[in-house]
Amino acid sequence: MSKGCFELMKIANRRKRWGALGPRDGTDAVLIVGDVRIPVHSMVLGTQTTFFRGKAGDIDVNGCSIHIIWRTLELIYCGDYTEQPCPKTNIPDICDDLNRHAAVCQLAELWGLPQGLREIAYQKYKAIAQDTCRSKDFAPSAENVTSQPFSM
User: pLDDT means per 10 residues in the chain (152 residues)?
Assistant: First the structure.
C-alpha cells in the first residue's frame, strides 16, 4: 500500500512526539487504563480517531488490555506498532501473536482510526493467520476481530 507524500509527512511529525515511554513533550490529556496514566496529545488523538475527537483532560479507557491500548497508540503516533508491551506497567502481556493483532485491529476499528492505519493492523493479523496459524488458535482470534469485546 503506497502512502502519499503528505501522509508520510504527517506520520513523521506524529512520530517525533513518541518516545520510549510513549507520547512526550507538550501532552495535554491523559488516558487512564486501570492504574496506568498515559500522557497524550489531544490534537493527535482527535485528528486520528473519531473516538477521542473533542475529548481532553483525563480520559478513562478501561475495558481493554493496557498492552493493546499501548500498541494502538503507537500505531496512531508512528504509523505502525511493535510487539513490545507497555513499559508503564508490570502487568504481563499474555496475548499470543494472533490475538494481539486481532485485538489491535478491533480497537483501531472501535476508535475510528483512518482506514490506512486499520489496514496496517489487519495486514499484521492476516500475515500471522496465514503463516503460523494453528486451527485451534484461529477460531478465537477470528471471533476477536469480528466481535466487540471492548467496553469504553
Answer: 61 66 79 95 93 94 94 94 94 90 95 95 90 64 59 50
> Which domain covers residue 126, as residue numbers?
5-146
Residue 131's Cβ-count burial label (10 Å; 0-12, 13-18, 19+) is exposed
Asked if residue 152 belongs to a domain, the reply is no
60 within domain boundaries = yes
Cell numbers describing residue 92: 504481563
End-to-end CA distance of the chain: 31
Q: Residue 54 phi/psi, 5° resolution? A: 85, 0
**What is the domain count for the chain?**
1
> What is the rounded CA–CA span in Å between residue 22 and residue 88?
9
Provide the edge-to-edge strand list for the sheet that holds 29-33.
36-40, 29-33, 57-60
